[in-house]
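input
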Amino acid sequence: MKRENVLVSEDALARQREFEAKIKEMFTSREAHPVACVDTFGCQQNVADGQKLMGMLADSGFTFTEDPKEADLVILNTCAVREHAEQRVFGNLGILTHTKKENPEQVICLCGCMAQEERVSQRVKESYRHVDLVFGPHALWKFPELLWQVYETRKRVFAVDNEDGTIAEGIPVVREKGVKAWVSIMYGCNNFCSYCIVPYVRGRERSRDPQCVLQEVRELVEAGYKDITLLGQNVNSYGNDLGLDYHFPDLLEDIDKIPGEYLIRFMSSHPKDATNRLFDVMAKCPHVAKQLHLPFQSGNDRVLKEMNRRYTREKYLEEIRYAKSVMPGLVLTSDVIIGFPGETEAEAMDTVSLVEEVGFDALFTFIYSPRPGTRAAAMPDPATRAEKQKWFDKLLEVQNANSAKLHAAYVGKTVRVLVDGESDDENFPLASRTEGNRLVRLKGDKSLIGSFIDVKITDSNTWALYGEPV
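output
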């Protein structure tokens, strides 16, 4: 894939701004005030995409609601990674038949990773005829043009062609209020893990220009955002396509030079590309949070090979040992799949033993979910759901005990946190995060929201810490 074919031209982006103006003028001439509902499923990358959709809609004259019944335009921004998320999306599409019946002029849109799958777009075309617009991640940058086609022709529009993918700089963004922000530094994936659909729906890896990333982070810091997460399917591959001999650790070092009071996080990080230099840079850069999310997926070498992860158990453990050595107190989290096709109980217990050996602060755990179109979906899978559930329950038992133990060790200590919002606990009305991203529920006044403060930890459980400002 040639680099010059990756970047969307200024002329092409200017054309989209013309369509935004047309949509805005159309509603103005009708003396109408259009309202949109953007419902996002899945990962932070989807959240970032949803904020771009809202940015383009705002420039087209829309305001926003969380209630589809109030909306002139409903967008389901979808995830294809888990079967459960897909079922929820189809359930919501079914519910929208009622809102469309009450408001026949309502436009319904399905976008995101699910929409890029041919089987999904075909099912929508045949069985969900109230859906007006379907497009995948590759077409997000030309959303205004696609929406204008729907309004102008009153016909259904499908933009789901398979493409390598592009980078479009300068798309407007409507960010959530508060202290957290997400910055995509690259798109796509070249890894083709056998269980994962992402490379098929998001295309090949392509990195944003470092200066564009730095400028976006600089603007966020100046705007008051204090917890900024860099996003990529594999951030450790950042820069491989730039031809600049400039890679992810270089980007972290340059971001760290931006003045201000803020923390930088990143996800996801692939173990096959994680290096000691990355950990050294994390250790020396004060703005980079001493938190590492490094998905290992399985603790068994045979299963890792079948997953096409391209590292071994020992290679993963070596990385963890080095990262801990240069960052004492490092907070570690990971992703784990239990019940991969062909996995035995003994192999699943290898995963449990790795969890015991590493001592993760928290895990994102999943029972394997087959995704049509991936290699793993065609593999023999003799273990029953009941067997996999038993292995999964053992994993949770071990991890929950470790999380509770690690959290209990915080009690009596004073830690620095960023107060980022309100809590759902009336006795501890504020929510905050440590540098390691551990949730701390606080006593205190709402005026503390948005501030870094010192907190004494007074209590803990498996999932959270509790404290009060010092």
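quick obs: Residues 385-408 form the longest helix (24 residues).
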